[in-house]
Amino acid sequence: GEALEVNQEVNCVTDFIHGCEDQLQKLKKQKEKGLLYGIPISIKDHINCKGHISSGGMVKFLGQVKEEDSVIVQVLKHQGAIPFVKTNIPQTMINYDCSNLIFGQTLNPLNHQKSPGGSSGGEGALIAGGGSLLGIGSDVAGSIRLPSSFCGLCGLKPTGNRISPPGCSDSCFVLAVTGMLGPMARDVDSLALCMKALLCQEMFQLDPSVPPIPFNEEVRLRGAPM
Questions:
Q1: pLDDT at 175
Q2: Distance from CA of residue 8 to its chain's centroid?
Q3: According to the model, what pLDDT value does residue 171 have?
Q4: Are residues 198 and 163 in contact, defined by beta-carbon separation less than 8 angstroms?
Q5: Is 166 helix (H, G, I), strand (E, B) or coil?
Q6: Is 119 annotated in the active site?
Q7: Which parts of the sequence belong to the Amidase domain (predicted)?
Q8: How far apart are CA 125 and CA 7, in angstroms?
Q9: First CA to last CA across the chain, in angstroms?
């Protein structure tokens, strides 16, 4: 409901992910509750979700419905999270704004005259507007960090190859800097919880190219402000 309201205001959602209710029922039957049990999570447009498109803001990808969830979505579900929406991006994602010819312009919920930043601008707008607690963006040259800054949120670009890539091989670019998926939320604790949940055995098994290094709580606690 919240996401719908925020979307009407700032145009940040590109798609609602179906089967959320079924997934919740499945989770309730599981003996082990994951670290993200029952948390609805928003997902940036280009991350593959089964039965949905990953448009990259480009018309040529509109007909290509994905047959599989990308590894990160599988791991989120394994940890009890419920991916519930896909969020807007600029066309090709190489832009610090958030607009494309398919879904239009996303506005900053704090000031409708301003951009939410990009390329994870839909995520920034939805979370800052109160429509999502936790989201997955991606960052090559600021695509998590900029919208987090513009929308007053916390965001993390993890070290390269720490998390399995989005699974959109046909619409990605070869870049000198490793693009990374990462969490966006309103506080650092949520980012830490998300990273801890993602860096699990399930991730390392599904994508053997990711180094099997679990989240180190000590490193975070040592990171006292200067």
A1: 59
A2: 20
A3: 45
A4: yes
A5: coil
A6: yes
A7: 5-212
A8: 9
A9: 40
44 tagged catalytic = yes
Q: Which of 70, 120, 132, 143 is catalytic?
A: 143
Q: No. of H helices and E strands in the chain?
A: 8, 8
Q: Which of 54, 70, 115, 119 is catalytic?
A: 119
Spatial separation of the C-alpha atoms in residues 182 and 122, rounded to whole Å: 14
143 is catalytic: yes
CB 123 within 8 A of CB 136: yes
Beta strands 104-105 and 99-100, pairing class: antiparallel
In sequence order, the β-bridge partners of residue 43 are 86, 136
The DSSP line for 7-54 is HHHH--EEEEPTTHHHHHHHHHH-SSPPTTTT-EEEEETTS--TTSB-
14 conformational bin, left if phi > 0, alpha if psi -120 to 50, beta if neither: alpha
Q: Which residue has the tokens 């949940």?
A: 197
> How many whole angstroms separate alpha carbon 135 and alpha carbon 72?
12
- Hey, which residues does 101 pair with through a beta bridge? none
Q: At what angle do helices 2-10 and 121-128 cross, to 10 degrees?
A: 120
Q: For the whole model, what pTM was predicted? A: 0.94
pLDDT at 170 over 80: no
- Among 90-99, 122-131, 210-219, the minimum mean pLDDT is found in 210-219
pLDDT at 223 over 70: no
Please name each of the domains of the chain with its CATH number.
2-223 (3.90.1300.10)
Is the alpha carbon torsion for 201, 190, 86, 27 positive or negative? positive
